[in-house]
Amino acid sequence: MCVCEVQKLPKIRMPEQMPEKRIKNFEEVALGYGPEQALEESTRCLQCKKFPCIGGCPVEIDIPAFIRLVREGKFLEAAWKIKEMNSLPAICGRVCPQEDQCEKLCLLGKKEEPVAIGRLERFVADFEKAEGKIKVPRKRKKTGKRVAVIGSGPAGLIVAGDLAKLGHQVTIFEALHQPGGVLVYGIPEFRLPKAIVGADIAFVKRLGVEIRTNAVIGKLLTIDELLKDGYHAVFIGTGAGLPLFMNISGENLNGVYSANEFLTRANLMKAYLFPQYDTPVKRGKKVAVVGGGNVAMDSARTALRLGAEKVYLVYRRSEQEMPARLEELHHAKEEGIIFETLTLPTRMIGSDGWVEAMECLRMELGEPDESGRPHPIPVQGSEFIIEVDVVIMAIGTSANPLLLKTIPDLKLTRRGYIEADLETGATSKPGVFAGGDIVTGSATVILAMGAGRKAARAIDEYLSNG
Questions:
Q1: Are 147 and 188 in contact (CB under 8 A)?
Q2: pTM for this one?
Q3: Which long-range contacts (CB under 8 A, 24 or more apart) does 377-382 make?
Q4: Is the predicted pLDDT of residue 139 greater than 90, yes or no?
Q5: In whole angstroms, how far apart are CA 60 and each of 52, 53, 63?
Q6: Phi and psi at residue 85, in whole multiples of 5°?
Q7: DSSP string covering 138-195, please?
Q8: Mean pLDDT of the region 249-258
Q9: Helix-helix angle 63-71:35-42, to 10 degrees
Q10: How far is residue 447's CA from residue 435's CA, in Å, rounded to a whole number?
Q11: CA gap 32, 119 in Å, rounded
């Protein structure tokens, strides 16, 4: 097929639940391609010579090769090709921001819509799972070296899987009762089903990785004790799990949640199935979510599914500056989330210990600040009230100090994150590596995975050559 013919083919739309139906359930919104849709979308790939899409993939998947296999109808082989580099393809196909990574560099995207790389990745990963023909890549012979990985989020899972394939004995220590990190406690079921996360984690276990849950490193054991206990290297991938608040009046009222607590209750603890599961969460009728990122979108859409009549998304800049994925913005609007942009909360108002309203100020945009975005400026005298019975603060997170306080010889940044080489994950402490949000601050799942990939190579080099 010539380039001109390929360019005339429109991007295949992803089937989805209708908004009026999906706001009443926690089932996955995007339904995925079928074989015919995947075949048709794969024909749009130009199979260009320089493969710019690979350069946009933090885990370096051979994208043209797997799409070529899809085009040939070799769906299992396509999944196996991806798994040569990525142990979590079903997860990445759902939550990776491909529009800012591989698809952003797609040559076809210069004139038409780029190839739906993420949707094809999701399709072949789901196809492999449905067929039950899970192929475990060949592993290098055992080296006798032991590596401790702290945290079973995306960075920890990737570094553990890669090191296991290289012949090292790897143990993941997870503080919670279920592995997966942000993949299980942070991302809602309707965007990332927990069965999908479980299947990808099972694959990592098949590579030979041991996962110990309910293991709080910093309390159960320290890093130094792990190194003395026979581990030759340690990777810290604990994420940035300490929620931030605005420190305004009334923020300690009942009904005011951090997004971390709200989403953990709803996702990991299954509060949306209460009392079948015994973790409750307040089901507000009028809910305000403060923030404009993916976590804010997840919180707002979760509150809606818990029965809220109105959900306000309160953000101090304009919609154009929101860091959330365009897909999440689109879904939130379809579902009826009310966008209160250029709005800053100034205090919470309540009675009998419970929040009842939120006072806000209108904002206007000024010159760009250090983030490169226009700086929001309060409009004096523009105060107004939003009646609410639940407020969810989704304005970001920082590094949890629990573990870091037990490692006095580990160098930290001024913001409390681990100082580590971004290309190797090496820290100031010999044998200790780190990656993901605990180094960069809150970022995306795929960037954390990319950090895990780089760290795995560096750890292997360290174990081989000291």
A1: no
A2: 0.93
A3: 378/344
A4: no
A5: 11, 9, 8
A6: -120, -20
A7: PPPPP---EEEEE--SHHHHHHHHHHHHTT-EEEEE-SSSSS-THHHHTS-TTTS-HH
A8: 97
A9: 120
A10: 9
A11: 7
